[in-house]
Automatic annotation (TrEMBL):
PANTHER family to which the protein is assigned, alphabetical: IMMUNOGLOBULIN LIGHT CHAIN (PTHR23267)
Keyword Signal in record: yes
Domain Ig-like: 19-115
InterPro entries: Ig-like_dom (IPR007110), Ig-like_dom_sf (IPR036179), Ig-like_fold (IPR013783), Ig_sub (IPR003599), Ig_sub2 (IPR003598), Ig_V-set (IPR013106), IgV_Light_Chain (IPR050150)
Sorted UniProt keywords: Signal
Organism, scientific name: Cyprinus carpio
Lineage: Eukaryota, Metazoa, Chordata, Craniata, Vertebrata
Name of the protein in question: Ig-like domain-containing protein
Database matches in Pfam families: V-set (PF07686)
Signal peptide: 1-17
Superkingdom in the source lineage: Eukaryota
Record's keyword annotation contains Nucleotide-binding: no
Length: 120
């Protein structure tokens, strides 16, 4: 527990500043069971302060992954995060229809996030 708190504080202090975030592709379509990869590139090294969110219509964004690859409680295991320095990837292995929505890559400590849609 103490390690998590210290790590978070270090992350916040390390991740301040202006960072631009871009995602690709901007939109993707997939059939149930396929693997979907969403890429995120930052303008400078933000390791380990990258989070992924999913927003469904009429709902607030839901945290899926933080610290690049740590699954938030309740996030299905088909979601995974990877990457380092400036290039990061969200992978959905065996995508399901309920995974449709807008995905956000965010570098903690900034207000920058870019949305990407994915639908089946």
């Amino acid at each position: 527990m103490m390690w998590s708190l210290i790590f978070f504080l270090l992350c916040v202090s390390e991740c301040r500043g202006q960072i631009s975030v871009t995602q690709s592709p901007s939109t993707t379509a997939a059939q149930p069971g396929e693997t979907v990869k969403i890429n995120c590139r930052t303008s400078r090294d933000v390791t380990p302060c990258v989070s992924w969110y999913l927003q469904k219509p009429g709902e607030t964004p839901k945290l899926l992954i933080y610290y690049i690859s740590t699954l938030q409680s309740g996030t299905p295991s088909r979601f995974s995060g990877s990457g380092s320095v400036t290039d990061f990837t969200l992978t959905i292995s065996g995508v399901q229809t309920e995974d449709a929505g807008h995905y956000y890559c965010q570098s903690s400590g900034t207000k920058t996030s870019v949305s990407q849609s994915h639908s089946d």
